[in-house]
Amino acid sequence: MLKSDIDHLATLNARNEDLRRDVDRMKQKQKILNEVELLKAQEPLIKYSEANKQLEDLKKQVEEQKVIVRKVNAEYAPLQELLKEHENELKKIIAKNADETKRCNGYAQELKDLLVKIKAIKDGIDARKADIKAIEKRIPEKEQKVRSMTNRINELEETLKEPPSNDTSEIEANITSINREISEQRDKNDEVQSEARELAIKKRQESRQIENKNQR
């Protein structure tokens, strides 16, 4: 075989090797693109079904707390009226006859009991209002998280519209970042849901305690 033939064969082999590497790179890039598409298909489910569900749960809790506050306020008003009636009655008794001290003492004790009950109800109202404010403060954070993740998807879509590149490091970094954010969002959602459940249990217990006091 002539030297020129040998050189030509070597050139062909080198070109064949380059083509093979190009094919491998294109396959790798296509694999990454497929993974990105898969993440894009899954991310809305995580983002909107979990994050938005959490937002709806928080808003629902706010409404439930507002209902409790209105209910407690409605119970608070009659107690105030009853307190005024007892005060007026006590004044009449004192003015009418000093010998009825024992009866006055009974009314005085009722007044004290009413004051204790009113204070407990007022404290409950203040606690409900504080809970509502705390929950409402967390809603904008969740909404911002949804907007941030939406912008991230848009950025990835714009990246995919750019001319193909053999450098896949940026795409791989984006995939890693998205996976990390998804994991963190799930952890946060689990934490918030746990807190919401504990808060709901606490509110039900306090509501039952208030109802039991009113029944007495």
From TrEMBL:
Residues 178-216 are annotated as: Disordered. The keyword Coiled coil applies. One of its GO terms (molecular function) is single-stranded DNA binding. GO terms for cellular component: nucleus; Smc5-Smc6 complex. Residues 9-103 form a coiled coil. Keywords: Coiled coil. Residues 181-216 have a biased composition (Basic and acidic residues). GO terms for biological process: double-strand break repair via homologous recombination. This is Uncharacterized protein. It comes from Rhizopus microsporus.
